[in-house]
# Entry
Amino acid sequence: MSYTPTDGFPDLDTIRVEIGVPSTVLTDEQLELIAGSEQDNLHGAYEWTDLELPDRLYQVFLRSVSRTIAARGLPLGMVGTDSEYGVARLTTRDSEIIRLGGQYRKRTFA
# Structure
């Protein structure tokens, strides 16, 4: 999926500034794939009535992109494989994403 920076979603340069990842670390092509994936995820998991992305979901988007970038170099999401206390895993949930996006989360019932 290609990334479309419209309707309140930031452009790639703004994403870089917001999350602090220079183009020497992550190419535009790589960032576009990650941003497109997270944009698609946001549209699938949340709903909002405004034409523009609400501030809280803007932060959810940036945090999701940042988490994906940070996890790129971690095989199977494992941290500290050589640490004294053993292996730790990245959490699958981020409490800030849950808190910020909660009111916009699509509700589904099985």
In short: Strands lie at 78-79, 88-89. Residues 12-104 form one domain. The first helix runs from residue 12 to 19.
